[in-house]
């Protein structure tokens, strides 16, 4: 019994056995398909044409993930630790909405929560290769966080200032009906998205916008510069090869190609 | 009396005591809330619903900042230096508009000046950690300034040239009513904002636009490249560890791990 | 006969003889002109004005490329290897559509396939200089692939999440008619394209959009940082000069300027 | 006489005397003001209000630049070399249009040529500091040219392919009236400009567009990466300090701080 639990644990939580990898791959497909169901159900023509199919699929995936959830709790050596972990909460949140929908009227709110099911996709990060690569990126992001915060502080101040200025320059008829609305316009402009739903009409407004665009165009270089430097460091340190130390005389050999210690002739590891 | 002044100075201007940090954090919240008041007051539905609240809040923050302003003048060892400093002027500008509004009709102009209150947010830079990070960015920006100026010179020339060209190619009916208008369009295009309020209509105009877009898409790489190089340098030199100097023979030890001077055997700091 | 085949092989497949380079340059022009024909034929006014010209040109280029295709098969030492190679398949696909068009009604589908003719342009990569440069870029792209995949995974999850959220926040009248439609909007926004065909209308929608834009504006730094690091590595290793080795004592000279071995005095290659 | 010519030559062409720098600064202002005149003249309300002023200013600047042009020819030691140089041609082109306008009807074409006057602004590059900085950028651009050409080849092929595909997917009613029109749309999309004058309407079209946007969003990283690497190299080599060589024993001292040769004790330059 205990052995069965251990074997199941290795299959469900581990990725070091063929069965474990297989379980993860099947799970990933199930997650993707369940998300696809939610997405397609939102299309009116589909929803009207196949109402039963979507209801069936939703319950199919919910029961599948419920079984998986309880299996995880049962096989984990310390169930409570799993339940309160990041993935434990995500796993629960991906099945709850359907059950809650039984008791209450199907609300729009539940649909959003069901979108959390998508977060389970990050389980892919457990799959070897991707884990390493994402760790390099996360490490670079963490290191550059303080600089990015300063940068965002400057951008937000700029956007608030531009928004207030344009609210005063352009009259309310031109779409700049309030400062929050103008701030929305400033963000649309600074980030170079440029929907065009609100655009400057007066000559002065166009001049200010032009300056704002050129600023937005230039300062995009700042986060890129910050991240490039940190990614460069993170990649370098992840590539850094082990240092060779002679087992008999403790000499540190800098040459990675050396096979014998050049001080005492001992074979290096 | 003198001692009270010194204690207050450390609380108001310094960040090295718990009381000093507390004062700064409360001040930051007051600034943020006062800015929020200005922003929300611009929304018509709010302004109509709570006219008294906004008037009260404006006077509340103005008096608060006035008290703070006089406290700063009184406790500073050289008051005139503070008054003429960057933050001194900003602090004055953030309270003046409300008082001027008493004597003159409430004009839109005053609202903009009140937006300057926002600049006080930069006081956050005094808070330890962020100061260091922003210094790295400012130092990188300063070093790359001449290159950025050259780059902007090229962009402005390009935009002027494109504007003139498009003014001639597209007739006035297509929105290109004057060269300044065309330059506005060129900036919207080159910076990849693309509102769509003015867009080329003729075949030749579309061709020229396409070339302009591809140019804009490529040259965005130039400021990014410049800044990345300078940020990389600034980060490196800020990370550079202190150099070890032997206290007895003044030998400069390059190896950061060394614990004893290899010339005279003295223990290194 | 065998010699003629070899000479033709060097002209058609090689670029190391003047005739071989000449053949490639003529071919490139033919490809460019044939693509231009397809493009111009799609313009109604041209198609109506010169119907015969376009039909003639299409057959002219098809026959030209057919002759080239058979010459390649005949002169290649292992014809089957060429036929199943990347360029072999592209070459076949660039002539097939016109012949198929004889038997079936001219369908729109064939036009797309004829666009594949364009892929033959990549033959330019065989021309000396460009081959080297593109290899550096391809090598950098290959090395950063796993990181780019992780990045795209995050972007797609973000876009799906934003799409679902906006579908719920904005009502269907505002253009967000289904989750796929909302995802389309999210991609338009995150990539800073911003057509403006769908734009948020409600206050909450505008707020969420603003956050999405600022995120999109920042994370563009991630692939740039990744690629810059890898291109930097690829350029460095492609620039790495050959190492000097003494022909008599096998000493490895690190100084690229050295002309004589500093161990035994032999002249270095 | 000869001496006057030499003095004038140093003032007009040189920047190493106070008079020479003064001449260049006045000239730059004259160029900027003359360009401003052309720009403002295009605004209908100004043109109608002050017709005489614009005509006067145009002749004023033309005569000023004509005098400057002949002074340059007269003082240059080899006049023909100046006339056929890049700036010689630009200088001529900036005065010719006004004279041609006397004989022919004022055509729109002449206005464009007058925009060339703007190119004279690049004379600023002669001014010390800017020259050095722009040389670093130009050198980086030159070195990365082949890679940028390969990149543009890929972008153009992609745009042509996308244009053809969308022409077939979206019907002509949706704005994709011909392949050139579709290519224009593809460029607007890939470069993330996104005017919105043409936008996909069908579901398949929106899907293809989404993929195109994500591609455009990613490949912008390629030129940035290329340029960053080359700018980094160019900056480094421009910063590279001179190498110290001992004047008596020719020892190459790598340490920039050394004041005496460590081999023979001679003082280093």
UniProtKB/TrEMBL annotation, chains A, B, C, D:
Transmembrane intervals: 21-40, 52-71, 83-102, 146-169, 207-229
Subcellular location: Membrane
Membrane protein topology class: Multi-pass membrane protein
Gene3D superfamilies, A to Z: 1.10.287.70, Voltage-gated potassium channels. Chain C
Domain of life: Bacteria
InterPro entries: Ion_trans_dom, VG_K_chnl, Volt_channel_dom_sf
GO cellular-component term (any): voltage-gated potassium channel complex
Domain Ion transport per the UniProt entry, residue ranges: 23-236
Stored Pfam families: Ion_trans
Gene Ontology annotations of biological process type: action potential
SUPFAM superfamilies membership: Voltage-gated potassium channels (SSF81324)
Principal localisation: membrane
Molecular function GO labels: voltage-gated potassium channel activity
Keyword Lyase part of the UniProt annotation: no
Sorted UniProt keywords: Ion channel, Ion transport, Membrane, Potassium, Potassium channel, Potassium transport, Transmembrane, Transmembrane helix, Transport, Voltage-gated channel
Protein name per UniProt: Ion transporter
Organism encoding this protein: Prolixibacter denitrificans
């Amino acid at each position: 019994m205990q052995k069965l639990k251990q074997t199941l644990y290795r299959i469900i939580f581990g990725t070091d056995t063929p069965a474990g990898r297989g379980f993860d791959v099947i799970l990933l497909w199930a997650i993707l398909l369940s998300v696809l169901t939610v997405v397609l159900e939102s299309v009116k023509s589909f929803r009207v044409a196949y109402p039963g199919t979507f209801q069936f699929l939703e319950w199919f995936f919910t029961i599948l993930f419920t079984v998986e959830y309880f299996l995880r709790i049962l096989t984990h050596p310390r169930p409570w630790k799993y339940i309160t972990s990041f993935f434990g909460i995500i796993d629960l949140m991906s099945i709850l909405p359907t059950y809650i929908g039984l008791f209450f009227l199907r609300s729009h709110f539940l649909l959003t929560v069901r979108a959390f099911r998508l977060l389970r996709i990050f389980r892919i990060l457990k799959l070897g290769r991707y884990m390493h690569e994402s760790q390099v990126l996360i490490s670079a992001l963490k290191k550059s966080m303080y600089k990015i915060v300063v940068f965002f502080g400057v951008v937000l101040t700029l956007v608030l200032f531009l928004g207030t200025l344009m609210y005063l320059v352009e009259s309310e008829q031109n779409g700049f009906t309030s400062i929050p609305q103008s701030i929305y316009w400033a963000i649309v402009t600074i980030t170079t998205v440029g929907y065009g739903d609100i655009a400057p009409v007066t000559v002065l407004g166009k001049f200010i916008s032009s300056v704002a665009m050129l600023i937005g165009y230039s300062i995009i270089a700042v986060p890129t510069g910050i991240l490039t430097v940190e990614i460069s460091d993170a990649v370098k340190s992840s590539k850094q090869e082990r240092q060779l130390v002679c087992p008999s005389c403790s000499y540190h050999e800098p040459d990675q190609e050396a096979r014998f210690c050049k001080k005492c002739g001992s074979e290096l590891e």
